[in-house]
């Protein structure tokens, strides 16, 4: 049995015929759509390394069956920058050393983008720490991650103000 | 040698990571991101017993599942030419590659299923439905009769004695005799052990996260029965290593064997739960510490015995008791070790192996001794400050520990801390406690090689097979190389992370920057020497006749050192000499004489504040200040991240991590991130790192020690001591849990 689905990934429409209903979004991205930037850390929703945005919300792609995503809009780490121009969250992670090995980083960054869009945390470090606690980092770059999310939040708010002025 | 110590403008700068953009855009290619054509997916089947034999596997059912291509079991698995119990290199441990049906620990591989898709292989693995003849597993620190160890796995002796410990005990006016326990811990790098193996005839290419790239090629080649040059390892990025990616393990070897057998490339990625078995861990320890002091509060004896678990078939044990060598002055020093064979996987090096467990117990015992003596724990450590290495009486190559104590205490606000516990509360009524610990980590150096090339266009190329597992090799090593060539960072190309490059040694022991960096610096210096030779012998050069030693390289030009106006660009020198590249080679190691002359360590002091709920006993580390002296810091931004990461590992050791074994099956009951707790972002606040300036003329030509592991040491004890100071309950096992405090209240 095959399952045809059509979804948008990083702005591109992808028509996929799945031969297997067991395929997760994570494995679809990594093994079938040549988008290995999204990482597998636990495959059971406990580490956050596979975080992507679906219709603007951050989710664990390892817990999401691809067949359920007909019509969905997915954004992965590969779709965040605008050409050579980094997204403010990406730039802040580099500047604040918000990673070491870099393996959890795509998930951290997608989670941060989702968190900022949710608008609950602002630049309050305690709320950022809480809101980012679904994304584990064994190198423990948490100090830099919190600063990066705070900096990016501030910069994105400033950019928004400038754009509307 | 003085010319090689000249440094340019790159080292010491807080440069952002050179691999940063690749890592924030998803472009950094980790092993499992590779996808060669014709790829097969492998899933290994883990044993669900810890001791016994496999009696049946339903291979027929697995093979009948659509998409399953092959099933490897001991019945059809090809023999391994270099057997799994042979030891081709210093990090070799016996592993399991389906050579028989014995089970020695839970999660050991008992079969490997290959599928056209990951989903098919996963289902096939389930269908094998293994049957066993299971024996009662032997577990825990009392699982079998302890045996005296001859060594710790790194070649250090099992017993070290300086002075007369019995006389030290007899002379003591006050003493403590305490026993601490630490649990089994598992590395759990975020990237599980992964591999893509691709054979071309008798040559195999391995995409494999690896901490000792060139050395590992020879080891894999030995096991596979092919020449070392027939193995290529590509390891540009490791998603964390922490010591676990230097050891060859069964599952990865099986993936290589499966690729050879099927003639197709094979990808294997361990599941998270499979990281609790064949890939090493930190064994549990039980440590007895006996400290005696005289009337002046100076130690008459420091007597440290450690019992640690190892597997039923290997000898590696945590060298925990060695943490008491090298730090505090004491009339007598004794470190002894015993091993206990249990039915677990073999332990191995895990970030600060021996040092982390040993420091945890030692720093708590020191705190207990200070309280017994009625003096401040920092003052107690200063009274027993070692000006020369205790026992050996060697001078330290450098030791800015006093400054670490002073600067850390000042920043933390240690002065005025009440000696008695349970004296402080915050505005919300939470119990507040302060504790401290000394951090210590040896500063080794490994043999390493590198190559540097000055190109006709005036740019540089530098090469060494370094491993970047997050410590920042891509950046810090490039900074060193740029300085050695007298070029700005953006004018050098740095090739690394592949076995076709010069051997950079091991990324371990906190020695990689010193070792690989030393090799790069030597190579760059050699290339500049050759270039200077050309220029100073060429009558057409403004540097003619200056002599080699009279020339320095800066910003792509050679300058006469006594007349800055006499200079010429690299490109012009090379062009006039015919346009050929100028090559330099570097080959460094620490000489036995240098190692013998001085004791070499990084030092530090860690101060912790905890807050504890007086009714529920929930614990929080609210402040953690570490001051470290670790020689020359190449990149302060990256060094701070390393030290902070280590301190958070210390927090994890003190309050979070513990593998729990099921007594009946021998399986680890909490083998995932829901049950095996590591700190999350919300656990980390009030973290500060101070790096204390230190010049070390002896440790190596660049004066570099290491920062990767020392952060754990000191921190565990500081937190344990702070919990005692907050509550008055002394918990002598880690991690400290709410129920331990409830029981003590």
UniProtKB/TrEMBL annotation, chain A:
GO molecular function per UniProt: 2 iron, 2 sulfur cluster binding; metal ion binding; oxidoreductase activity, acting on the aldehyde or oxo group of donors
Transmembrane found in the keyword field: no
Superkingdom of source: Bacteria
Keyword Cytoplasm among record annotations: no
Keywords annotated in UniProt: 2Fe-2S, Iron, Iron-sulfur, Metal-binding, Oxidoreductase
Limits of the 2Fe-2S ferredoxin-type domain: 3-80
PANTHER family linked: OXIDOREDUCTASE WITH IRON-SULFUR SUBUNIT (PTHR45331:SF2), OXIDOREDUCTASE, IRON-SULPHUR BINDING SUBUNIT-RELATED-RELATED (PTHR45331)
Protein name as catalogued: (2Fe-2S)-binding protein
Organism this protein belongs to: Puniceibacterium antarcticum
Automatic annotation (TrEMBL), chain B:
Annotated SMART domains: Ald_Xan_dh_C
InterPro entries: Ald_Oxase/Xan_DH_a/b, Ald_Oxase/Xan_DH_a/b_sf, Ald_Oxase/xanthine_DH-like, AldOxase/xan_DH_MoCoBD1, AldOxase/xan_DH_MoCoBD2, AldOxase/xan_DH_Mopterin-bd_sf
Domain Aldehyde oxidase/xanthine dehydrogenase a/b hammerhead: residue ranges: 25-136
Gene3D superfamilies per the UniProt record, alphabetical: Aldehyde oxidase/xanthine dehydrogenase, a/b hammerhead (3.90.1170.50), Aldehyde oxidase/xanthine dehydrogenase, molybdopterin binding domain (3.30.365.10)
Organism: Puniceibacterium antarcticum
UniProt cross-references to PANTHER family, sorted A to Z: DEHYDROGENASE, XANTHINE DEHYDROGENASE
GO molecular function, a single term: oxidoreductase activity
Pfam families noted in UniProt: Ald_Xan_dh_C, MoCoBD_1, MoCoBD_2
Protein name according to UniProt: Dehydrogenase
Domain of life: Bacteria
Signal peptide range in chain numbering: none
């Amino acid at each position: 049995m095959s399952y045809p689905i059509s979804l948008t990934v990083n702005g591109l429409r992808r028509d996929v015929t799945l031969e297997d209903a067991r395929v997760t979004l994570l494995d679809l991205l990594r093994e079938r759509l040549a988008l290995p930037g999204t990482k597998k850390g636990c495959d059971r929703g406990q580490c956050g390394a596979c975080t992507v945005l679906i219709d603007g919300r951050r989710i664990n792609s390892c817990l999401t069956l691809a067949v359920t995503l007909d019509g969905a809009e997915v954004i992965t780490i590969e779709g965040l920058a605008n050409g050579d121009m980094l997204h403010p969250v990406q730039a802040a992670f580099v500047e604040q050393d918000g990673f070491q090995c870099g393996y959890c980083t795509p998930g951290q960054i997608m989670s941060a983008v989702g968190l900022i869009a949710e608008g609950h945390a602002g630049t309050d470090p305690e709320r950022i720490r809480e809101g980012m606690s679904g994304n584990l980092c064994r190198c423990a770059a948490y100090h830099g991650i919190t600063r990066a999310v705070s900096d990016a939040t501030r910069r994105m708010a400033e950019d928004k103000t400038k754009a509307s002025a | 040698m003085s010319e090689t110590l000249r440094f340019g403008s790159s080292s010491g700068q807080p440069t952002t990571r050179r691999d940063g953009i690749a890592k924030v855009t998803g472009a950094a290619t980790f092993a499992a991101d590779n996808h060669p054509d014709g790829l097969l997916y492998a899933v290994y089947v883990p044993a669900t017993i810890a001791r016994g034999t496999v009696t049946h596997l339903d291979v027929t059912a697995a093979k009948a599942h659509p998409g399953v291509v092959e099933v490897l079991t001991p019945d059809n698995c090809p023999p391994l030419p270099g057997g799994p119990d042979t030891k081709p290199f210093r990090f070799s441990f016996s592993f399991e590659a389906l050579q028989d049906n014995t089970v020695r620990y839970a999660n050991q591989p008992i079969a490997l299923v290959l599928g056209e898709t990951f989903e098919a292989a996963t289902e096939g693995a389930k269908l094998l439905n293994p049957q066993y003849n299971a024996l009662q597993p032997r577990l825990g620190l009392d699982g079998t009769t302890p045996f005296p160890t001859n060594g710790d796995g790194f070649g250090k002796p099992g017993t070290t004695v300086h002075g007369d410990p019995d006389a030290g005990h007899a002379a003591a006016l006050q003493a403590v005799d305490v026993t601490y326990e630490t649990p089994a811990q598992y590395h759990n790098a975020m990237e599980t052990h992964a591999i893509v193996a691709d054979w071309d005839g008798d040559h195999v290419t391995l995409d494999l996260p690896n901490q000792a790239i060139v050395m590992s090629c020879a080891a894999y080649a030995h096991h596979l029965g092919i020449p070392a040059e027939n193995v290529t390892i590509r390891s540009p990025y490791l998603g964390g290593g922490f010591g676990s990616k230097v050891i060859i393990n069964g599952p990865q070897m099986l993936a290589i064997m499966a690729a050879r057998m099927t003639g197709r490339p094979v990808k294997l990625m361990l599941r998270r739960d499979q990281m609790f078995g064949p890939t090493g861990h930190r064994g549990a320890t039980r440590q007895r510490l006996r400290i005696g002091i005289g009337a002046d509060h100076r130690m008459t004896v420091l007597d440290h015995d450690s019992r640690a678990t190892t597997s039923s078939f290997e000898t590696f044990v945590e060298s925990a008791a060695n943490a008491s060598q090298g730090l505090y002055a004491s009339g007598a020093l004794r470190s002894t070790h015993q091993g206990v064979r249990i039915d677990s996987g073999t332990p191995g090096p895990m970030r600060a192996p021996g040092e982390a467990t040993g420091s945890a117990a030692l720093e708590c015992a020191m705190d207990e001794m200070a309280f017994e003596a009625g003096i401040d724990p920092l003052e107690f450590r200063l009274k027993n400050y070692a000006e020369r290495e205790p026992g050996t009486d060697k001078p330290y190559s450098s030791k800015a520990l006093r400054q670490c104590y002073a600067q850390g205490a000042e920043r933390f606000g240690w002065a005025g801390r009440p000696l008695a516990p349970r004296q402080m509360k915050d505005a919300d009524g939470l119990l507040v406690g302060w504790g401290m610990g000394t951090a210590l980590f040896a500063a080794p150096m490994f043999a390493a090689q590198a190559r540097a090339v000055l190109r006709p266009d005036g740019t540089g190329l530098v090469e060494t097979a370094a491993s970047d597992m997050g410590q920042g090799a891509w950046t810090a090593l490039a900074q060193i190389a740029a300085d050695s060539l007298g070029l700005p960072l953006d004018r050098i190309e740095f090739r690394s992370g592949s076995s076709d490059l010069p051997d950079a040694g091991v990324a371990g022991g906190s020695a990689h920057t010193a070792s690989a960096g030393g090799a790069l610096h030597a190579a760059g210096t050699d290339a500049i020497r050759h270039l200077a030779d050309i220029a100073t012998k060429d009558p057409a050069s403004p540097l003619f006749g200056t002599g080699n030693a009279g020339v320095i390289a800066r910003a792509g030009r050679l300058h006469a050192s006594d007349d800055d106006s006499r200079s010429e660009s690299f490109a012009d020198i090379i062009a006039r000499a015919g346009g050929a590249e100028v090559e330099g080679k570097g080959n460094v190691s620490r000489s036995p004489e240098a190692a013998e002359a001085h004791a070499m360590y990084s030092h530090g002091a860690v101060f912790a504040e905890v807050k504890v709920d007086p009714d529920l006993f929930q614990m929080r580390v609210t402040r953690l200040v570490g001051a470290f002296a670790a020689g020359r810091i190449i990149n302060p931004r990256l060094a701070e991240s390393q030290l902070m990461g280590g301190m958070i590992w210390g927090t994890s050791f003190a309050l979070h991590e513990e593998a729990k074994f099921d007594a009946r099956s021998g399986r680890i009951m909490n083998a995932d991130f829901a049950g095996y707790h590591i700190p999350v972002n919300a656990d980390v606040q009030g973290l500060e790192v101070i790096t204390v300036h230190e010049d070390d003329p002896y440790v190596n030509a660049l004066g570099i020690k290491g920062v990767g592991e020392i952060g754990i040491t000191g921190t565990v004890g500081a937190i344990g001591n702070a919990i005692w100071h907050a509550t008055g309950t002394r918990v002598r096992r880690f991690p400290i849990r709410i129920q331990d405090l409830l029981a003590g209240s």
